[in-house]
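Support request from a user on the community tier.

User writes: "When I paste my structure tokens into the form, the page sometimes reloads and wipes my input. The last time it worked, I copied everything first. Here is what I submitted, just in case something in the input itself triggers the reload:"
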């Protein structure tokens, strides 16, 4: 098996009679399956009624290759490997792997010898014509003057080059380099057989793109747990090409690379807009192999319509969700602009133009619960001690000082902002017994309400 198998030539390609039956000196007609006289012990095969079809397709009867003979990881009717990774090929050759491997017992590396030393996927592993000369009796050392043995049918150019006419140039073999990283020598050195990637090529005549590896088959080794994996890494970037930004390259001349349906159910089909949140929620690192965070925010920043990030009942549910994990919220939203701005427009904040209009609802509990004694778990003092970050997402220190600043002071020398406050004591019981430590640790919160000359502050020094 070779890494870059040819595509099948069209079965309707015009092949001259000389490539099927060629006149030999005794006047008889011998099919192209005649034994090679230079192969010791070659037996005389029976005449093949399908001789004109042999080597032009995966099977001479035109039937598809059985799933058991295809590469590991192949799915029925999968159409071959990814056309983006392995672009379309054009190899107008006639070749019979079954004849060479199974009948003549020629090992894969006898023809594809470069597989033992190839470290780059772009290397062409198709044998040169000189590799064929020893058995076919031809001479390809000078490709401008290829010499054929007139006595041997299998030596003629038309025998292997489908559609060839005398005196014409043979059709070129076109095999674009694959868009991935692969090291044949590394795999050969670890005794990984050809069939583990290319399937049972010995049962196939003309090898096509269908005999190229499948990613599902690669996972048979590359997703094994350590130490069984033996260094076979499962990261996408191990085999797939990357852009300078470190993300997987997904755009090629041959198309756009997208995940297959069996990989995390991430096929980017027509329903992907609805399903992608489930895949991203299960494993966001999988998505980050190809997409940056900006790619997501370009749609999810709230300026793109429709807003399909949150469920339909999100307005009623988002308070609980934001309290549970505000980090998720702030990954897209800014509290002092997005959240506060919406609350102001909705009238659920005292600082908005509509104030706290009852008809528009309220953000905090009623005054009897939120600010009046006695203190309960729903009191704002408890809520502030529990999660001050939630408070400062909407409020600044000035809002607190409206109530908690020292009352009746009009001294312009005050460093704090709370001059003339209501003087409501924000301190818990017995705070005076340990206020000295709090002042010494950080005096700034104290100076928000107290002047530096405040007698109460002096008692804590």
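"...and here is what came back when it finally went through:"
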């Amino acid at each position: 098996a070779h890494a870059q198998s040819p595509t099948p030539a069209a079965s309707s390609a015009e092949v001259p009679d000389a490539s099927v039956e060629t006149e030999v000196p005794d006047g008889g007609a011998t099919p192209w399956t005649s034994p090679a006289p230079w192969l010791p012990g070659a037996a005389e095969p029976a005449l093949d009624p399908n001789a004109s079809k042999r080597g032009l397709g995966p099977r001479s009867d035109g039937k598809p290759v059985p799933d058991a003979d295809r590469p590991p990881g192949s799915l029925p009717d999968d159409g071959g490997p990814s056309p983006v990774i392995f672009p379309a090929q054009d190899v107008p050759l006639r070749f019979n792997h079954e004849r060479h491997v199974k009948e003549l017992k020629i090992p894969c590396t006898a023809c594809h010898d470069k597989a033992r030393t190839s470290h780059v996927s772009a290397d062409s592993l198709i044998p040169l014509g000189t590799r064929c000369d020893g058995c076919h009796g031809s001479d390809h050392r000078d490709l401008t003057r290829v010499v054929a043995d007139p006595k041997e049918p299998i030596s003629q150019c038309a025998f292997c080059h489908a559609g060839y006419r005398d005196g014409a140039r043979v059709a070129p073999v076109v095999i674009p380099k694959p868009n991935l990283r692969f090291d044949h020598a590394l795999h050969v050195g670890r005794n990984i057989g050809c069939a583990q990637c290319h399937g049972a090529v010995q049962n196939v005549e003309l090898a096509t793109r269908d005999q190229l590896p499948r990613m599902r088959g690669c996972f048979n080794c590359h997703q094994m747990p350590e130490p069984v994996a033996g260094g076979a890494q499962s990261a996408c970037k191990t085999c797939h090409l990357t852009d300078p930004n470190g993300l997987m390259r997904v755009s090629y001349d041959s198309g756009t690379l997208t995940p297959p349906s069996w990989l995390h159910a991430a096929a980017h089909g027509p329903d992907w807009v609805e399903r992608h949140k489930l895949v991203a929620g299960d494993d966001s690192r999988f998505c980050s192999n190809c997409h940056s965070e900006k790619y997501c925010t370009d749609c999810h920043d709230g300026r793109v319509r429709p807003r399909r990030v949150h469920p339909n009942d999100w307005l009623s549910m988002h308070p609980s969700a934001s309290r549970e994990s505000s980090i998720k919220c702030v990954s897209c939203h800014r509290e002092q602009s997005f959240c506060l701005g919406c609350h102001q427009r909705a009238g659920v904040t005292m600082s908005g133009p509509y104030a706290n209009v009852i008809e528009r609802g309220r953000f905090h509990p009623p005054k009897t619960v939120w600010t009046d004694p006695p203190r309960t778990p729903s009191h704002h003092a408890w809520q502030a001690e529990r999660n001050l970050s939630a408070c400062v997402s909407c409020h600044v220190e000035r809002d607190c000082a409206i109530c908690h600043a020292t009352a009746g002071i009009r001294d312009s020398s005050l460093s704090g902002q709370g001059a003339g406050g209501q003087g409501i004591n924000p301190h818990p019981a017995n705070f005076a017994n340990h206020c000295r430590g709090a002042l010494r640790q950080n005096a700034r919160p104290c100076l928000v309400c107290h002047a530096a000359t405040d007698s109460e502050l002096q008692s804590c020094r």
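Agent notes: The reload is a front-end session timeout and is unrelated to the input. The chain has 20 helices and four strands. The two ends are 86 Å apart (CA to CA). Escalated to web team.
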